[in-house]
Amino acid sequence: MTTEFGDTVGTIVDLFCGCGGFSLGAELAGFRSVAAIDIDPTLQSAYGRNFRTSNAFQADVTEIEASNWRHLIGSQRPDGVIGGPPCQGFSWIGKRQNDDTRNSLVHQFFRHVALLQPKFFIMENVEGLLHPDKVGVLNAALEAVPGRYTVLPPFVLNALDFGAATSRRRVVVIGYDPAEMSALSESDFRPCPPSKYTTVREAISDLPSPIAESADRKDFGWAKYPRTPEQQLPAYAQMMRRLPPSHIGHVEAIERNMAGMVSGVVRTRHSPEITRRYANIVGGKIDPITKSYKLEWDGQCPTLRAGTGAERGAFQAVRPLHPTKGRVITVREAARLQGFPDWFTFHPTKWHSFRMIGNSVSPLVSSGLLGRIASSLKLELAA
């Protein structure tokens, strides 16, 4: 396995970073994360593990001021600010309450843009942000952005169009300083339509069968890949097995990947009755009891949900069912569908891992967006 990555093109700060899906795409596009902020230590635990040269800070963004930034990153000015404020207050599947305190975190994102004065910013959120009852929250928050920035009208992207095997429609808000970057428009960030979407088969068919849970609570659930010549693997699977740039990735994970192992393969235990019921559900249909969607080999996965943290009841999100086995998908299968590479590790606990994945920006979307930003920065630097 080899890596092919370009030189560093700039730096970013990641707000509401979670496990780092947004940062990962930025890193693969040539940026370097100088600071990543999240209030949830469990979700952020994977960030420090996978981005070992970055600075991950557990903090409440509402309490960070200019003096705090000077302490965190010194005098350096990041080229970009990225982030996805918690979206439950806007979600279609939630109650979309106007008094949800998380709605104000959209304002906090743009407040930090004003504090950090980057060359560009990208905010990601759910489609519900553009609902007539909610778009006023966004418009009010954008008033914090200094007037010199060009802010593109919010638009919706789908992870399928960027090569992921899951449908995930999200709103992005992009702004940039035209004095420091080439002109940008919405069309610059829309990928060429793929000839066909990545299928579930291409994404997960080469992965190991689930293994029993270890008694070791720190075990990430490692298993050997099935013996398949690399040239026979789908192109997507080959991409997911590729090693990272030398400055990211946990050393143990990379060593195990090189030895033919992958993490996140622990099974979820089902009773024999549930296993039979899941196995008999037709692909593309939903289990009437658990509401779990049965994946199809030649189809795509619906949006992966995150569930809730302990502060909101610790509810597990409904997980899709494997196309042919009578079970829910594993953490690694979910990661593959979302676009996370195999060297990326999440958490020894399945629930936390699924929360991390469901809360994340697909790294494939992020690398697509930041790759276009990098081109604009390069053009400016070359001029």
What is the average of the pLDDT values?
91
Strand content: 5-15%
Uncertain residue segments: none
CATH topology of the largest domain: Rossmann fold
Order of helical and strand elements: EHEHEHEHEHEEEHEHHEHHHH
Helix content estimate: 25-40%
Briefly note the structural class of the backbone. alpha/beta
Biggest pleated-sheet summary: 8 strands, mixed
* CATH architecture name of the largest domain: 3-Layer(aba) Sandwich
Radius of gyration: 20 Å
Give me the number of helical elements.
Answer: 12
Q: Which CATH C-level class of the largest domain is it?
A: Alpha Beta
Whole-number count of domains: 2
Number of strands: 10
Shape: globular
What is the H level of CATH, i.e. the homologous superfamily of the largest domain?
Vaccinia Virus protein VP39
Task: Please write out the topology.
Elements: E1 10-15, H1 21-28, E2 31-38, H2 41-50, E3 56-58, H3 66-73, E4 80-83, H4 104-116, E5 120-126, H5 135-142, E6 150-151, E7 155-158, E8 169-176, H6 200-204, E9 223-224, H7 235-240, H8 251-258, E10 261-262, H9 272-280, H10 331-338, H11 350-359, H12 363-382
Parallel strand pairs: 1-2, 1-4, 2-3, 4-5
Antiparallel strand pairs: 5-8, 6-8, 7-8, 9-10
Helix pairs in contact: 1-12, 4-5, 10-11
